[in-house]
Amino acid sequence: MTTTLLHVGSAITPTAEIRDAAILIRDGEIERIGKRADLELPAGAQEFRAEDSTAIPGFIDVHIHGAGGRDVMEGTREALSTVTKKVAQHGTTSIVATTVTASTEDTLHAVEGISKYIPQQLEAGDFRAEILGIHFEGPFLSKERRGVHPTNLLQMPSAEVLQKFLRAAAGNARILTIAPELVGAMPCIDAARSLGMVVSIGHTDATYEQARAAIAHGAHHATHAYNAMRPFSHRDPGVIGAVLTSTEVNAELIADGIHVDEIAMKVLLQAKGPEHVVLISDGTPATGMPDGKYKLGGIDVTVVDGVCRDSDGKLAGSTLTLDRALRNIVALGIPLANAVRMLTLNPATILGIEFKKGALRTGADADILLLNEALQITQVWARGISN
């Protein structure tokens, strides 16, 4: 792999901004970052000059089901390769492959396939996002707030079923979404937390008190805040009230302008602050594809004008890419550095990999994006490999 010195107008790390910056990339990692005047061009290295661009870390998507016409539930190398290549074109250099509610057998098949793919995914040395692990969205969800998850395949939380999923994941289980009001939820939360998993409150009809009980057990994440949650009211704040007021909870946000109104997005951002919001895509196989009919797991969905719905007209994930999410959040008046943080450092910190991903720092993977003045991505490096 070549050694490259990247010279940019500025670099957002995202905890600081360096003007007239240089980033030295060697063997897929960031060896040094600082002022260009302070870094020498090593012998044999090439210099990539982009003084009119801003460098930021690659995006990390902790909630994505598919892209490019393929679904992670397929569990095949071909499908996963297609998904990771498609999202990398839009600046997402790491993902957590997210399941959708299916039969136990179908879920195990998908998870086993993803787990076999993960240790082999970088062998080809080509340009693609890296799968960091698996996010289980289902089957331990509320029937009242199921969204498009099939009612007949939802299950009450079961430590036995969870253990089957975890064995199939072979150490790659990262996030569990669960409705905390369901009988058996707390033992599942405790089991997942004991293994270091992130437990997320989602697809839930929980009261404020039930949500707070889950938070006390270590559920410190909220799956696509507002969506598939008991509505907030001034006499019944519910799970949304708990998410908005609990400083230990990080909230996912689908910033496509369809799932959440702009005012509601502003409320969430003001209540949580930029350090506790994670922008996600909730992307489906329709991401990066034309309007038409697709499969989300076993669910038939139709995309019209970029909006994905099931046969009942319910929103079924999105076609959002994270570069568009960045522009949408900045358009709300959020400073660029804060918007970048929600796509990079925050998800990396939640996953406990903030020294390897989500920041431009010495020793981190060389996952780097270049933005022009319109915040369009002009160049992507994934672990030092450029598009």
Protein architecture, described:
The structure is a single chain. The protein has 387 residues and is α/β, with parallel strands linked by helices. It folds into two domains: 4-56 and 364-386, Roll (Urease, subunit C, domain 1); 59-351, Metal-dependent hydrolases (TIM Barrel, Alpha-Beta Barrel). It contains ten helices and 20 strands. The protein has helices at 77-88, 104-117, 159-169, 185-194, 208-216, 238-245, 262-272, 322-331, 336-343, 345-351; strands spanning 4-12, 17-26, 29-35, 46-57, 59-64, 66-67, 70-71, 92-98, 130-137, 173-178, 198-201, 221-222, 250-254, 277-280, 292-296, 299-304, 307-310, 368-371, 377-382, 385-386. An eight-stranded parallel beta sheet has the order 5-8-9-10-11-12-13-14, sandwiched between helices. Strands 3-2-1-4-18-19-20 form a seven-stranded mixed beta sheet, with no helix packed on it. Helix 6 (238-245) links the parallel strand 12 and strand 13. Helix 8 packs antiparallel against helix 9 (336-343). The relative contact order is 0.17.
